[in-house]
Design a protein that fits this description.
Layout lengths: L3 H20 L6 E2 L3 E3 L9 H22 L4 E7 L2 E8 L2 H12 L6 E4 L2 E2 L5 H20 L8 E6 L2 E9 H11 L7 E9 L1 H7 L27 E3 L35
Parallel strand pairs: 1-3, 4-5, 4-6, 8-9, 9-10
Antiparallel strand pairs: 2-7, 3-4, 7-8
Helix pairs in contact: 1-4, 2-3
């Protein structure tokens, strides 16, 4: 387990690096999310899925600019062809337009529209979200029974979105940790749940068969007064999923009309 000094240094480095990247953006419309943490090493997605996700984010961002303009604050994140939209738009029509535009991008299998109808957030708020993301990633790094590379973290206005292909044990453990981190107001899980056996096939070095869930983690900083509430997002299943996605939901992505398969292959 990482020492307190090492963890503090990692947290500081992550926050600084992410904040610099966020502050360097020229326009509020951001490709790949506002405060995001992803490690490509040991990614449990196929290489084709990773390429599709990158393409979806780039094409989706470009089409959103065309449809909504440069100054709209919309973040688009794709994981395993499931898209998360976060940020702020001026009205309900713009929110629906964003969802429709992204749903038409090739290979998109589902859209979770978390856009808020409100004024755009301040740089102070986005910096706070960046720090929360860094804290979450540092906690995942410090957990000896989790792999940070299995998770993608997006933070928007204090809500932390957790994406990834993980076992039920990993999903529950990560949720327990994240919801107690100061600054986290809500946790939304957007996981594709796989079995321990499938994990052993996908990433043998990451499999921990028979490992019991670890106790809830100690918060990174001062203890939060109340653990953040948790929501689970239903995702549209793949044509032939390796494992059934999570089904309990309080946040549901837009159902998509059947789409013709691309010329190459689908993830």
């Amino acid at each position: 387990m990482m020492s307190p000094n090492g963890k503090s240094l990692l947290l500081t480095s992550l926050a600084a690096a992410t904040l610099v990247a966020a502050l360097s953006a020229c326009a509020p419309l951001i490709i790949g999310g506002a405060a995001v943490g992803t490690m490509v090493t040991m990614d449990r997605r196929t290489s084709g899925a990773q390429l599709d996700d990158e393409t979806i984010e780039m094409r989706g961002a470009s089409r959103l600019r065309e449809a909504l303009g440069e100054r709209v604050h919309v973040n688009i994140n794709s994981f395993n062809r499931q898209v998360l939209l976060t940020g702020e738009v001026p009205n309900e029509a713009a929110k629906q337009t964003a969802e429709q535009v992204v749903s038409r991008v090739d290979n998109v299998k589902g859209v979770l529209n978390e856009l808020a109808v409100m004024g755009t957030t301040t740089m102070t708020q986005r910096s706070s979200d960046t720090l929360v993301t860094a804290k979450v990633r540092a906690s995942l790094v410090d957990a000896n029974d989790l792999y940070v590379s299995a998770f993608e973290v997006v933070t928007e206005r204090g809500t932390v979105y957790l994406m990834g292909r993980v076992t039920q044990r990993e999903a529950d453990r990560a949720t327990q940790m994240v919801r107690t981190i100061p600054g986290v107001q809500r946790v939304v899980r957007m996981f594709e749940t796989i079995s321990e056996e499938e994990l052993a096939r996908l990433a043998p070095q990451q499999a921990k068969p028979g490992v019991a869930p670890a106790p809830a983690a100690t918060p990174v900083a001062a203890t939060a007064a109340t653990p953040a509430p948790v929501s689970t997002a239903v995702k549209q299943p793949d044509a032939a999923p390796a494992a059934s996605p999570t089904t309990t939901s309080s946040v549901t992505p837009m159902p998509l009309a059947p789409m013709s398969p691309p010329a190459a292959t689908q993830r």
